[in-house]
Every structure is written in C-alpha cells, then in structure tokens.
Amino acid sequence: MATRKHWLMTGAAVIAALGIGFGAARLFDSPSPAADSHTEGEEGHSDEEAPEGFVALTEQEAVAAGVTLTGLQRGGGTELRLPGHVSLAPGAEARVDAPLAGTVTAVHVGPGARVRRGTVLVTLRSPEGAAARADADTAAAEAEAARAALTRDETLFERGYMPRARLDVTRAEARSAEARLRSARARVAAFGNPGSDGVVVVRSPADGVVTRLIAAPGVTLHEEALQVAEIADTGRAELVFDAPPSAARLLTIGSTLRAETADGAVLQAVVVAVAPATQGGTATIRATAQGAAPAPGTVLSARLPVGGGNGLTVPADAVQTVEGVTSIFVREGDGFRARPVTVGATAGGRTEILSGLTGSERIAGAGAFVLKAELAKGEAEHGH
Question: Dihedral, CA atoms, 6, 11, 12, 14, nearest 10 degrees?
Fold first, then answer.
C-alpha cells in the first residue's frame, strides 16, 4: 500500500513538471505585445537606414565640413610635363673687359656685390693709355694753332695781302688738324679716358650683381686677356623649357604656361620665344614669369595641356575611390550619393569624365574626401 502511494505521488510530480514546462514553453513562444512592438520598431529602424553609398548631409553642413559644391565643365585633354630651369635673359649678362692693356692697381668690388651702371670696378695703369692721352693733347694743340693760322690768313686775304690759293691751303690744314683731334679724343674715350699718367678706371656697363671677378691687384692685362669681371642683371630672368617638336607647335608667343618649382611653388609664365627643334629633336621654349621669378639656376617644370575635346571635366579632387570603384559624390536630396564614373585624362587640375555623369549634376569638389570618410564611418558602424 505504501509502495503504491509512493508511485502515485511520483507520477503526480512528473505530470506537474511537464505541465509547467509546457506552459513555460507556450509563454516564451508567444511574445508579449511589448515584445512585438519592440521587434517591429527594430524592423522599422532598419527600413529607415540611409541607402548604400549615400551620405546624409545638408549643404550648410557640407560647407562647414570643408566640402565645396561645384558643377561640371566642358573640355578635356592630356598634359605634358616640360623640364626647365630659370636662366638669365639674353642681354642680362655683361662681360666687362678693360679697354686696354695695363697693370691692375686696385679692385673696388667683390663677387656678389650689387653695382649700378657706372660703378668703378677696378683701376689700372696703362702706358698705352698715357700715350693716347699725350696724342690727344698734342692734337688739341695742333688744332688750336691751325685755327689761329686760319684766322690770320683770312684777315690778310680780306686786306688783299694774301692770295686765295694760300688761304685755301691754310683752311685745309685747319680741317686736317681738327680731324686728328677728333680721332685722338675718340681713342682716349675708347680707352676709358686715361689721365696723363695712364690711370684708367673700369666701370660697370649696367646695373646688376658681380657674378665673377677675375682681376686682382698686380695682375697685368694684355691684349689676349682683358676681362676683369662678369655682371648679371638678376632681375631679368627667364624660364627656359625643353619640349618635343609636337608640343612646341602648340605654343605661340603670348601663350600661358603653368610652372612649378621642385618645392611646389606655382607661378604663371608667358611665352616670349619658341626656338625650333635642334638636331637632338628638342625645341626650346622661353617664357617670362608673371611676378617675381625664382633665382637663376632654379629647376622647375611646366604643364602643357595637349589634345582637347568637349568632354565633361571635374576638379581632380572630386574623384574618389569608394570600395575600389572610381566615384563622384553627386548632390541628391538632402545628401550626397557616390556615383561610379569612368575617368579619362587629367590636365590642369581637372579630370575628364567619360561616363557616369550627364553634366547637369552638382557635385562635391574640393573636400570630397570628407564624404568618403563619412561614408566609410557609417558603414563601419552599421557592420558593428
């Protein structure tokens, strides 16, 4: 009896447990209204997420973030890089020679000195200069005597004391003396107007900087070696570029070039001369900088747009790579959408668009990388 009672109690416990478990299962399988509401809310939130490749951003927010809105332009092509350097313009360098042989007695400037036209560079003493001055003084005395003789003979002729033939001879002698004087004075001027002691000063023929000094005190200059210095007008600098013949034909006097130095400085230049190609197949382009030019010897390059066309172009900064796809951020509604495009050549800071845009869109130009970063951030948060 006791055994039977024990089995009855055990069976009741099992049935009760089964009943509780079944009820609990029914309870968790049937979500409450609150749970249903939460689930539906999550699904609704998923439906409201931004479409793929879209960054929600107002124009004001975009501008504040450094994004520039711009349109598309027509015109495309490629560009060539022309190597070049800064050089002094023709006539900007002056070689200064002593006008005659002699011994240098003093040097008044040094390399790098800035001089003006007429500045004394060196002083020298020349026997030839002394002789030239003496000849000029003699010619002056002879001319004075010839003028006096002519005045006397003209007076005698007027009084009838001298025949015309004699007067004609006196006049010829006076003209000859005047000619010798002019010649002697011209020679003295060419020699730098030496004094009676033969001292000559050599002056700068132009404003500029002494780039080379050859003369030194005690050095004797002779006819085969009269150079004393070199002067350069550094303010007259030009940009000189090497170009293939095909590129040189695209340039004419007055064309504009965009040049860039090795450290990234950009300057505009105007073409002033185009020399034909040499035997090596290279043409020379000379241009003047609009504004101050870099120092002579500076290495630089120029961008020369070539080709052409009427294709669509965008600022080069507008082109971004989004998940491995070349894209442009196009303004749509209240944000920007990354639209895949096919690009062509880049020239003058603009990139040609071959397909993907119609030309009427407004796009993100400078600062488009901000949208790319924002897009990547949003996708990372969504994946997490």
Answer: 130
